[in-house]
Design goal:
Length: 139
């Protein structure tokens, strides 16, 4: 099982004229075929932020593939390990999803990731996730 770190994961969050609002996103295109159970770290959400929605899109991964979106604390501490944002859903065919959920507030920097099951993500398989939220107690 590989842990792939996407290039977008280390992007700095935008803090500007929109006030507390934030959108953190990540995109990854598999350079080689993955393995069942691979995790792709897409982006970081800074400490002091809370998220309450996501948008996701993926290419056809074929086979019996499923894709789940989760978060974990960057430092590996308890409280976020393997916490689902979106439960596993079929990614056999290309698709997308948009959802709102009860807010998740991060005490520490968190990583948003996707993981696949049932079938591996093929070479050139694409995944995009954007989570939206706000900074807590900032302007």
């Amino acid at each position: 099982m590989a842990n792939v770190i996407a290039g977008d994961r280390n992007k700095a969050p935008y803090a500007g004229e929109v006030g507390n609002k934030g959108v953190w996103s990540g995109y990854h295109k598999m350079p080689v075929a993955g393995n069942i159970g691979d995790t792709i770290e897409l982006c970081q959400v800074p400490a002091g932020a809370k998220i309450f929605g996501y948008e996701a899109a993926w290419s056809a991964h074929g086979g019996t593939a499923t894709l789940a979106i989760g978060w974990k604390y960057k430092d590996g501490s308890a409280g976020g390990s393997a916490t689902a944002i979106k439960a596993a859903a079929s990614s056999v065919a290309a698709g997308n999803a948009v959802a709102a959920f009860l807010p998740i507030e991060f005490e520490k920097t968190a990583i948003i990731y996707v993981t696949n099951a049932a079938s591996a993500i093929p070479q050139n398989g694409e995944t995009f996730v954007a989570v939206s939220g706000e900074f807590v107690g900032t302007e």
